[in-house]
Predict the structure.
Amino acid sequence: MSIFKNQSELSFNFEESLEEPKISKFGFREYDARWLYPEEINKKGLELFGYGLGKFILEKKGDNASIVIGHDYRSYSKEVKYHVAKGLISSGVNIIDIGLSLSPMVYFAQHHLNTDSLAMITASHNENGWTGIKCGIEKSLTFGPNDIKSIKELINKNQSPKIKMIGNYTFKNNLRDEYLAYLASSINIDRALKVVIACGNGTAGAFAPEVISRIGCEVIELHCDLDFSFPNYNPNPEDMTMLQDLSNTVKKNGADLGLAFDGDGDRLGIVDNLGEEIFSDKIGLMLAEDLSETYSDSKFVIDVKSTGLYFKSKILKKNNCSIDMWKTGHSHMKRRVKEIKALCGFEKSGHFFINEPLGLGFDDGLKSAILLLQYLNKSYPKKLSELKEAIPITFQSPTMAPFCKDNEKYEVVELVTDKIKEIKNNKSEIANQKIQSVSTINGVRFQLENGSWGLIRASSNKPSLVVVIESFISAEEVKSIFNDINNILEKTGKVGDYDQKLTY
């Protein structure tokens, strides 16, 4: 259903508004925008953001520029879209509204409808109370830091804009069917894989079970009914509560695997047939090794949170494939994959970027799931747990996020980076090992002499840090590395509680 009842709603006069726009500067993240709603941004703030975004699009694409826009299932997302759309229309941009969407569905729609830009109203995996906007102009890509900075500047210049031009509004109600047809095209799973689909009551529940059934799998649904209160847990495939629930359901039903999707469907979490979680970076390695047999000389991009096993893979070396480590964050990764013409990119958080000829380059949890299911189908009679055995054992922490204020988190990372460099230069130790190397591509990732490593970086979308650890030795070493990292963080006096801690 259209968000506008009649044509008269398309015009908006900012000067007649009684409410002052409220829009927190901290909502402008590295490559998208996220706020607590309505505490940090109000309706007029959303309209002002839409107007600034529209002006930015017109500067880049000229008059009559178009945008495709969608929203997730949160209780207030349609309201947020309504006010962003009013601002966009008031800037002169032409809108195609595709209704309830996943983020990858909006990315697909920009290709399919050939629009100049896109905007998706979603807070992704953030908890209820958050809203956000993912935007982009270049197909398959979302904005980078410079784009977000430019939009912020345009908004600051137009606190009371005078409306001279009104854009058009169109509602397209069949894009969901076209998107699902694209995903399922020319794909058939010829053995009836039993798959548990977990969506945490998020938007992916309206898409994932249907498309996985279409390609020939038996689907068992776990919290796939849409409920914006998220009554069971937040839909986040890195959250151990969600993964444990998925694990229990896989074991109870004797399923071949379990697939977990986040709130806007661009990420994937995996549990094998034994109910054991396989972190997405290791799934990425399994897929990369398999793909390399067909696509030799390929490039693969991984993020700084990913396992070091990519660099040790004999199969990737045999097939002359190269590994590029890059910044965490879906926008950074998409750009890097396109820039170096990589076949795929893999992020530990569950973003998979499947490029031509296999995909369109953007992150899509459903497309990633289908790629994995094709791999399993081809590998019959081996189970996912057996395929996993080909990957050397390492001991990985979950992604842990200690609270840190938005206006302090980058300063804290700088302090930690200086401390890590000091430890290396002084030939001191972490977990009874000297530091072999330090990378500052994104935060600080240090590697110990035995190959184990730790990462501390600032979250791109929340007031928190991110801590990830991998040991090539033992779970005990993971604990030891974590304790040393945590001691450094505690000494800053600016870090709070973790969202989750080590499970062993």
